[in-house]
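Notes from hallway chat w/ T.B., transcribed later so I don't forget. T.B. wanted the structure written out for a chain they're using in a teaching module, and asked if we could keep both sequence and structure tokens in one place. Agreed to drop them here.
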Amino acid sequence: MIGQAERLIELNRLKTRLSSKEAENRGRIIAFSSGKGGTGKTFICLNTAYALSKLRKKVLIIDLDANLSNVNIMLNVKAESTLISYFQDNCALKDLVFKMEPFLHFIFGDSGRVDYPVSKNLEYLFRDIKDIAAGYDYVLLDIGAGANEEILYILKSVDYNIIITNPEPTAVMDAYVIIKLLHSSGAVNKKFIVVNKCYVKDDGPVAFNNLSKAASHFLGESLSILGYIDHDPNVNNAIKSQELYLKKHPYNPTSAQIVKVAQNLIKIQQVANSNQS
């Protein structure tokens, strides 16, 4: 019995080493999620990707908001090919890549289908996402709000989780629920917080402090802040005009905060690479 236990432990160690080695040879896979809708998750994901691309990082966004996908709508792009073709075995994942700019690519999702077969294909999907990540510095996944079984599977499978919240108590509580469910499911990947829609100076730090204290006290989880994003009326204008905010307003203070989020991501990866070498 002891021999069997030792072999299982050694197999798990080997699996972890192989997984770490595989991760070294591909871009980071990062999920953008939120406990509730309306936090600005897709907005932050899109504009962070654009900032990374302008910092000469090759980025792929995959819209995994199952059956409520809207990345292409926010970009005013007609999605000719979407994930449903992949799920129906009509094409490979790499065949769906839409190259909007040299360093910014997309795979679009679907909306309004009654036969969206995500749950049956997540294991295969992540195998192919890891393969395609070899050609990128970052693969950003725009995940649906909430925490159903499919979402938790995705959040457990990525390298990093970026949880978007805002200063509203309900949004902070919903972000805590996401963290709690990940903790309960044994997820060990790193979790970073972005507090969006901050109206006054202390909004962001107060919200993060409350979330961080709860996670530490009740779960033993240590959270890291990735950035605070101020409220800007120009955000709604950019969304309505279906333009990237950062592209339309590159010199606004909120744009600088989004760029800072992208820079912080790069620093995190540089530290991780340094620790592995």
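Follow-up for T.B.: The chain has a mean pLDDT of 89. Might be a good example for the class.
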